[in-house]
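Late entry, written up from scratch paper. The run itself happened at the end of the previous shift, but nothing got recorded in the book at the time, so transcribing now.
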Amino acid sequence: MEFVSTLMHVFILYSQQIRQLPESVIVETTEYKCLQSQFSVLYNESMQLKTQLDEARQQLQTSKNAHLRHIEMMEVRIVAITGTTRTKQVLHFFT
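Output as recorded:
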């Protein structure tokens, strides 16, 4: 427990010292540049994933619309066939 307390104390002191440093000093450190580079890589990857997601959504919507049009065409054919069959039955009944 004492170790954790000491570690927290060191962290607080270090944090206070960092706050007093000018930004120009911080941005020139190796750690900052490394973090900035990692952030850039992750940001670019996230943008690529977002683009892929948008494209996948568009493809899904296109497929859904095509499927719905196909169902509508099948229903129209069924109605036409059913109507033709009924007409033939009615005509056969009266002949």
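The radius of gyration is 35 Å.
(Scratch paper discarded after transcription.)
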